[in-house]
Amino acid sequence: SPTRPAYLAGKSYPDNTEELRVFLDSMYTRETGPGHTPAEAQPVNGPIRFLVAPHIDFERGGHSYAHGYLRLAQGPKPETIFVFGVAHNTPPVPFILTRKDFETPFGMLRNDTTIVDRLAKALSYDPYEYEFIHRSEHSIEFQAVALAHAIGVEARIVPVLCGLCPGETQAAPSSSDIQHFLACCNEIVTQGNGRVAVIAAADLAHVGQTFGDDFEIDDETVEKVHARDRDDLAFVTALDADGWYRSVMKDGNQRRVCGLNCIYAALKSVENTPLQSELLHYDHASDPGGGIVSFSSIVAF
């Protein structure tokens, strides 16, 4: 197929355009409890260049998506958007590319194949060997839907699934393949002069019995997760890719931060770009199996 179908339409979100629009509109006004106000329009000084958004389902995390995507919608629209997602199937390669356009109920998001072809040449392995993982992976699909809802389908996307970083340690990845690829991303973003945005489709901690822990979630556990997340996110708002990586990995990534590599990749793509950043929102949601998943919304402009 020349396109990547909307795999979760009708499953995780409505496949009817108008029903979906109403469903997503509700994210922007949702009350989620004490300390969590709905997303509000704010003055935007220039285009949003960098966004961390959740990839948890809209039902549980839509209110956090709303904070970031509202800011993106307020500024000048980007022409091209890198979307770094998480390959939850953990293929044994760091990056998986696709040249397919992404279908959404709001229309087709076109793939910037010129950039994808350029990135493919920056890797020593075949970046399409595990392309089939894109078919059912939700992390980029949810961004495609949120993008089409917030800014339409005029911008082209560069969909990149992030898998394993070989030899993950407490230090940042040193593989020449990884660093050469991300240097190429950075060059493209820099040359875009504000017309290229970067999104990290990233959830944070996954803690509790459903994720393999032998304890139940209580208030003390939640507070510990929040404290560690905020320590890590301080490096994201500082746009410090290596600091972010080291912070998450200093305990061996005990919280199972699935967005580790895609946030790292997104940060490296805007490295050395003079930007101002802001943590817009942070929260967690319960998992039915007994656990919590945390997520945040961060922008830089």
State the share of residues found in helices, binned by percent.
Answer: 25-40%
Number of strands: 11
What is the CA-atom radius of gyration, in angstroms? 18 Å
Class by helix and strand content? Answer: alpha/beta
Give a written overview of the molecule.
This protein has about 300 residues and is an alpha/beta fold. Helices cover about 35% and strands about 20% of the residues. The protein has helices at about 15-25, 60-75, 115-120, 140-150, 175-190, 220-235, 240-250, 260-270, and strands at about 5, 50-55, 80-85, 95, 100-105, 105-110, 155-160, 195-200, 205-210, 275-285, 290-300. The strands form two sheets. Strands 2, 3, 4, 7, 8, 9, 10 and 11 form an eight-stranded mixed beta sheet that branches. A hairpin with a 2-residue loop joins strand 5 and strand 6 (about 105-110). Helix 3 (about 115-120) packs antiparallel against helix 5, helix 6 (about 220-235) runs antiparallel to helix 7 (about 240-250) and helix 7 runs antiparallel to helix 8.
